[in-house]
Amino acid sequence: MASLRPLLLALLLALLPAGALLAQTPPPAAPGAPTTASPLTPQQFDQLVDSLSRAVAERLRQEGAGTAVPAAPAPTAPATAGTLEPAAHAAPTAPTPAAPMMEMTEEAPFTEMVIDVLGRSDDVLAELPGVLDETARIPALLRAEINNGREPSTFALIVLGCLVGVLVLEGLLRLALRGPRRHLAGRVVGTSSLWALTGLVSLDIAILAVVWLAVHAVIVGLFGGPEPQARLGFLLLTSLFNWRLYMLAFRVTLRPGLPQARLADVDDAGATRLYYWASAVLFVAIALNDGRRVLEGIQSPPLVVAGVILLNTLILTALLLAAATALRQPMAQWLHGLVQGGRPTPLVATLARFWLCLAIPAFLILGVARVYGALTTSVGIQNAILMTMNVLLALLILESFMDKVCRLMRADLRPETTARERAIEAVMRCVRVAILLGAVSLLFRTWAVSGMGMMDMSGYNAIAHAALPAGAILFAAYCAWQGVEYLTGLHSPAPAAPAVPGLHDTEEMATSASRMSTLMPLLRVTAMLTIIVIAVLTVLSQLGINITPLIAGASIVGLAISFGSQTLVKDIVSGVFYLVDDAFRVGEYIDCGRAKGTVEGFTLRSIRLRHQNGMVHTIPFGQLGQITNFSRDWATLKFNLRFTRDTDLEKLRKAVKKIGIELQEDPEYKEDFLMPLKMQGVTDIAENALIVRFKLTVKPVRPTVLQREAIKRMVRILPEQGIEFANNTVAVRALEGGGEPGAAAAIYNRRVANDLAEKAAAEAEAAAS
To answer: H or E segment at 589?
Structure first.
């Protein structure tokens, strides 16, 4: 046993910081017990080190001289119905040396506690050979005389047969349901896959229910009595069912062989490795715990039970470290899959990358806590660490489930169903916050009451009574904010682009936003401020704080601000009325007298306009004045073209009408036309030309694009039908020379007409802008 002492001393030295923390926050004393000391001072810590050194030296000196440490006999607990050894056949237990319990003083309680732990560690190590002796008592308790005549060998065969039979039954059920399970896994695509996932989980629960019925039937039929054999059989069968029950969560999450229904985003090889390592760790942990319970059931001395816990801790810690090392890649892939499936967060990304650096210290701390609990019979920290690990594992499984649901929903959603996707994401965020609040509350209770002993249950209940309504109010406020974000997100304006006629040569122009989407930023800010103020005031009132002075003070401060900043109030009020009047929307081109531009956005105080040349104007609402909106409802464009004086106007009218019909039927432009292109008539007669006006009415999205297209077609089609554009030149007929008479002049006239048409189009664009 001497080889185990350095390891045990190292574990105890590692516990010194935890012991100091426990000394600073002592657990509540029982009624009538003496109070403990305050936190350690530097002088007390030096005294602790000196006392530890003297105590260890004295103990080593005594052991070297062969002196025995005085010990008190350990009392033998009476047999109960839960023990393996019945009261009628209880064998006398020899007195076992117990650890000397030193009296705690008010000057150095932590010093005495550590000395007591060191002394008890020597006694536990000295009693480790007694584990074999206590284990050798078990066959005597299973003899036929005290178990209704059933031989130990018969009992062993029956128990082994029952355990194997239960496992075989589960395997046969899974084999029989392989077809339905694969069918349901194949249907895990899109939104309808939720029903398939529910069906798979239902099948697993049904299999586990049949296993429970079989275990219960065996216990009732074969192991229902108070005999040691019956109690041991009951323990083994219930442990087997608990093992399969715990593995249900890993089976549902990892789904070895069914990658379509797998919640964790890992490959099949990684999922299989994770599942079997988890199965092995849980099996060993349950088996070691059963061994401890058997020794407690046969009323073994406490020091022997503590030694068993030390051995179990070494085995389980080594197995956990081996599992963490072997599963470093699958676990990193699992966590990294959560980052890809949901929104990347620095915390989850860091955890996915360095999770092994956190897991190994956590397992070592758990082992140290188990050692400390075995030596001091204080299992608060050990249970708190176990609860923390279980909560973290449950959060990982729940997050994997929600991430899988979101990925399936997102894969089945079409572009027109973005509102449904936003609703799902909002609900998932609320569910995550609710789960996190519950987990934090559970961990706080575990650590505050059982782990660190900072308060008792009455103190925790008093805090929970006050904090629970406040937490519910804050959660309701968060859900209300998620609802506001969802509703305002349905009408969020798209990024604005200039929509003024003639600004760009591109034909793709952004449409203006709706009135609701224009109001959404203002409504979102107003709703957020309202929710925050109401939630804060309600929480303060729930915590017993009088909020009347706060409301009165806020009213006075608001009145003072309104008197001192009249211009700001004017801007805000003017902006509200501009928005109520629907004078402009995001994406529309307006002229406010001081500037022109496309509305890119606004705040409570000012509006932001983007000029066609790129500069941005920020104008307070109080200085806007008259608003001229160029992008509302419809736009009528009028332009003039010059034709020769002998032009047939009726022929021109019919040709232009035909061009307008073709434009209106063009798939690229037909959605923009409200009224087709048509000729209004002659507006003026020049010396050598007729000036004719044309008009078209379109939606105010890209009016100049349609105007340019109409002029381009008129320039191309009208000369083909013998309708000539006017020019300022005189036709000259050649009297001699080669070539056709007048051909050169005709070509020149056509070029001049094209130049005039382009000039007229440019003038029309300038007039429209």
So the answer is: strand 589-591
